[in-house]
Structure formats: C-alpha cells, structure tokens
Amino acid sequence: MATDKREGNLDAPTRHPLGQDDPAFYDENALLAEMERVFNICHGCRRCVSLCHAFPTLFDLVDESATMEVDGVAKADFAKVVDHCYLCDLCYMTKCPYVPPHPWNVDFPHLMLRAKAVRYKQGKVRLRDRILTSTDTVGNLAGIPVVAGLVNAANRYRPARQALQQVLGVHADAQLPRYHSRTLQKRMRGHVTIDSAKPAGGTRGRIALFATCYMNRNEPGPGEDFFAVFEHNGIPVVLAGQERCCGMPRLELGDLDSIRKARDHNVPMLSELVDQGWDLTALIPSCVLMFKNELPLIFPDDELVKKVAAAFYDPFEYLMLRHKAGLLHTDFKAPLGKVAYHAACHQRVQNIGHKTFDLLSLVPGTTVELIERCSGHDGTYAVKTETFPNAMKLVKPVAERVKRAESDHYGSDCVMAGHHIEHAVADGREAEHPITLLRRAYGL
Ligand code: SF4
Ligand code: SF4
C-alpha cells in the first residue's frame, strides 16, 4: 500500500505515456504487483463504484474474500475486473483524485490496457473478439452489395442470431450494425468543394473528414449531413483518403501491434493533409480521441503523431470555435423542439466542454436536455454474450431519461451509443446524430 496519505490532488492532472516499450510492461509478475497496489487504493476509496462494472466486480471480489482485503483475492481473478473495463477513461478524467502528479500515481484505464496487452501477447484472445474488432476486414466483406443484403437479413433473423450466439458468443438480442454497400466514400466520390477557407478562432477553415470505418460502411447518412452543414458554413470539406480503422477496437483488445500498424498507415496520410492546410475531424468521438489523446500517449516521441493530434478536432468543437469568431451561420430555418442529448464518454474525456449541447441550444425553438451517463455500448461490450446483460443494465438510466424527457428527438455523437439507447427505449423512434439534427435545423 502506498504510504503518502495526502488526500486528493490539488495540482492539474497530467497523464504519463503508456510505456509499452519498457521491458517491465509485459512482465506478468510486475503487472500483478501493480494491479494489487492500485486495487488496494481503489478498495479504500470506492468513488468509482457506479461508473461501470469493473469496480463493483473488484469490490465484490474483495468483500467475498477470506481476508476482505485485496490480498485475499486470487490473482487469477484480477482478469475478471479487466474484462469489464472498456477503456472509457471516465474514472481517470472525472473521478480519481489520485492521478498524477499525486504520488499514488493511479491510472486505472492504463493499468487495464496493460493487462489486456499482456493477455493479448500471451495469445489469450477469443476468435470472436478478433473478428469483432477487425472492422476493416469485416466491413469490406459485408459491404459487398449481395453480401450486405444477406448480412443485414441474417442479423434480423432469429434462428441465425441464435446460431451466431452459440457459435461465436455474439448475444442474440444485441443490436448489430447495418451494412451499406453505398459507403460514404462512394457517395462523396466526385464531390467538389469550393475552397473559400477563412481561418478564424484557431481553425484554418478547411477540414478533412476521417470517415471512420463505422460511419463509412454502417452509417453514411450523417457523413453526408456533415458535408452539408460545414459547407453551408463556408468550410471546404474533403474526405481524408484511403484510411484504415483508427485502431480503437484493437486497443480494447490490448493489441498494440495493430495500433502501430494503424498509426503507420493513417498518420503519414493525415500529416500530409495538415501540411496542405487542412484541419482534421471525425464523426465518432472514440476515433477523435484516438488521434487526439491515445496515440500521443502510446507514441509520445512521434512528431507526426503530435502534429496530427494538434490538428484534430471534435466536429462541434470546431463549429463552436468558428461561432466564437463570428463565422457560424445562425440562419436556422426549423426549430428542433426538445432534444434529449446523450454526451458520449469518449467525447467527455476530451475536456472540450459540451460543444454539441451548446450548438444545438443556439437553434431557436430548441431546448436540449443533457444526459451525462455511460450508455453501456462501449465498443464490443454490448454485443458479447457475457457482457450484453451488463450493457443493458448500464443503459437503463439513460433510456429512462430519454423516455421521461418526452423529447422530439434524441441521440448521441456516438451513433453506436445512440443505437444502444434506441434498443433500450424501444418505442419505435430512432436515435439521430446531432449533425443530422443540425442539418435539419438549417433546412438544408
Ligand atoms: S476506464 Fe471506464 S470502463 Fe474502465 S474502469 Fe474506468 S470507468 Fe470503468
Ligand atoms: S480509480 Fe481512483 S477514484 Fe476510482 S476507485 Fe480507484 S482510486 Fe478511487
């Protein structure tokens, strides 16, 4: 147990690099010793008990052990805590008083990531998890026109879903994404943007959209809305190019080699766009977080990574910077009424404030209700057979808020979270991406 008893942290939190190149990183005994140290601090603190299922799992293990302390928990059971961490970063960013520079140096998400990386290196990964996180390979296959139709039909066919649960461990009741053969990249091919860039508010006024594997193949509509909204505001838009998955799903698996490969493909391409005068964005908060925060912590000495991180913005952060500089059009044509808006975890931890909430609130005749709770989707957590019930428990309070709001619209910047909420609300309404709502408000 750490000896410094100073309660809380009076200094601004800092984050250390992940440190995967340190030989001790993959040393299992060193990992277990560090887990025991941090679990002891968490056991004495317990502030994070309501954030996710990782902490209740840890505290139950402690409370049910012979000593009722962490030393009574079998080391083999530490993995049960790791299984319930989906690396949302909320405990680090919003709750923990013992993060660096506090001498206790608690970084729970990085510790969980290290445990996942050690497990991955040992080959202890299920085929199901490899498939679910291979978004480019699965998307390329499922995006072939005839295959897309079959996959979408099978996903809605109960016997097929029961078979998928039995064979692969994908819960039969989980909502699986729909595949589009007309991807965002195909839809925008040949699109000509007018280069009328006006730099303002720290932005250069020209933006390249990293399409993301999910928005490209599973949800191309909001991507088109993005083009309409940004170009309406005089911001030229291009797609980033022949990108690959940013790597976030593989991070959840602890597969750091794949993160390096994703970096090697995407970062030089994005860096060139920055050199040509483009700012960068993506419509999925997790992908923005990957480029803005995660890659710089994994590759702290990489100058290209730093350059790309500095040029990456959340889309609504970007529009609000333009608004501050007087360059956002506020010629809204249609009120949105009441909007129940879910703030996604990976957007909250970017420390940019509630920019989507702020922007939607500018639309006359619109009130926005902010819901700041984990949706429980969290990558693959809401589709795996063993974690789907927890994901449904986590989303329940969010769904209740949406139902009680009796809003005209609801949604999240994270479309996967939006669909998971939709699954729990189950009243026939669909979650909508805020960029889609904004397009509607402009009457475009
Ligand atoms: S990073 Fe998120 S999921 Fe992981 S332990 Fe912290 S709050 Fe829970
Ligand atoms: S992560 Fe920090 S705030 Fe959360 S339980 Fe552990 S010590 Fe407490």
UniProtKB/TrEMBL annotation:
Domain of life: Bacteria
Cysteine-rich domain: residues covered: 207-291
Region (Disordered) residue spans: 1-21
Keyword line: 4Fe-4S, Iron, Iron-sulfur, Metal-binding, Repeat
Keyword Repeat (UniProt): yes
SUPFAM superfamilies to which the protein is assigned, alphabetical: 4Fe-4S ferredoxins
InterPro entries for this protein: Cys_rich_dom
Pfam families: CCG
Keyword Transferase: no
Protein's name in the database: Heterodisulfide reductase-related iron-sulfur binding cluster
Lineage of the organism: Bacteria, Pseudomonadati, Pseudomonadota, Betaproteobacteria, Neisseriales
